[in-house]
Amino acid sequence: MCSTFFFGTLVISAAVTSGFDLNNFDQLNAAKKSPDKKIVIKNLLVPAGKTLDLTGLQSNTVIEFTGRVTFGYQEWEGTLIELKGKNITVLGKPGHLLDGEGQRWWDGKGGNGGKKKPKFIRVSLVDSTVTGLHIKNSPRHCFMIKSSENLRVQNTTIDIKDGAKHGGHNTDGFGVSSSRNVTISNSEVYNQDDCFATTSGSDTIFENAKCVGGHGISIGSMGSGNVVERVVIRNCRVLANTNGIRIKTRKEETGAVRNVTFENIEIKDISKYGIIIQGNYYNSGPRGDPTPFPIENLVIKNVRGHVARSGTNIFVWVAPGSAINWFWNTKITGGLKEQQCKGVPNDQTSRCGKK
């Protein structure tokens, strides 16, 4: 397509790149080598058991999703979409949909048995942006960020509402690991597991999010020597989740949580815990007394809202000496189930485990 500009009697034609239209999976390799470095993915069907492999991209590539992208059905444990590169721009155009049709795999077991289920999208991006993606019905874990640096993900919708009635499980929203300087902003997540979780890395921001139906916003589960540090979670709403915010470390494992801030978090209709910090986490439930695991310079500021009567407002159970330099300012009400907190710093003033 050309645009024509008139300056007196001089006519200048400027070429405008439309990009490589990828609507046939067999053209994927050609699209990645396109000299104009723009891939427009339109109404694409990815064959069963295959990955939309957007790795090995040329630097400064632009990827646009338009129309509906779907995936053939097969029981497998791969990833439906992979993105990897430097200086990459990913755009979801108005009206597009990345549709995992996860109901074909859901059986209430997630990654704990039953059908083998693929994860949805994994990104390893440097100096890049991802904007405006609309994702529906991931078979299990949805948006995994790994080995990324200087990445901004914004205006994302993860819609797995259907999983609540049709066996969705382990449908985690965002997961960040082994990354630095990642910001996730202005997202909506409807799912059946963590809205956001980070298990390793530094300088992470999760902000301006709406989380509905899942397990809350999490640090961890932590172990295997991993460290999470300099994380800010702010200006979020956590609605109808099992937990509001939580930190979970695994017994007899090593690692550290340092310089984490939860600020301006509204919770509402939480069924189990408004805030929970536990040092003996297992998927199947806590086992025995926690072992030491440092959680240092933790700020929980203006975390407020409501827990169901059958739940607990605040619960902490960590090994003595694990909690170092905590600052809390919370107002959480509603939960009538009292549990005795253990390992809380002596200067902690929150009504831990109280009504």
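That was protein one. Protein two is written in the same sequence-then-structure order:
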Amino acid sequence: MSFQIFAHYYDEIMDQSVYDSWLRYVEKYTNGEKGLNLMDLACGTGKIAVQLAKKGHHVTGIDLSDEMLAVAYNRMLEEKTTLTLAVGDMRALEPMGDYDVITCFSDSLCYLANEEEVLSAFKGVSENLSDTGVFLFDVHSLYQVNEVFPGYQYIYQDEKGAFLWESFEGESENSVEHDLTFFVATEANPELFERYAEYHRERTYPLAVYRRLLQEAGFSDVTVTADFGDAEVAEDSKRWFFACKK
């Protein structure tokens, strides 16, 4: 899985209002406190991590992609704030301390290949979470993966290039495959474009499976909602939001 080109387009194609919604979701569980120790797992380009740091929290951003972290580092400098950024694999998360809040948003857990990898991620989070801490994450719902994504197409273009996103039903149960094509203007001649391609696979599971894996990882108090915690889960909810405590 490569994010080399995707990292540079990620913030352009993301609905910017979604980041505000994720932040509000986190704030529901910080109770207005400042100076909390937060880990943003799969932090990507650091947009959420930087905003949490600007709110006065001590933030550690973890991501598997060097390219994503490079964008996050530049954002940190531009926003004149400070946070810790580190390369890390959520499937093998090392003990890093007792965090008050650990987040994992933008369906990042859906990139894990199977239940065993999801369980490993949950266990790593549990080991890094304080006894009174909360683990917040979202995943694609079954409806999103099986009904919305197959046949989905999206096109974005600007003066620097163009981006085509096509989604197809995956080979595994409750999975989807994304075919990403980029046309990027060359530095030597802005009228010439180079083509790049990336392939992303995502998978989700029934709510009962997530609950079972969370329980195996040591979480006994799990709340599941939709719409960033503002609605109950429905058959056509596109994302599920989890708030988990030990």
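The mean pLDDT is 92. Keep this in mind for the problem set.
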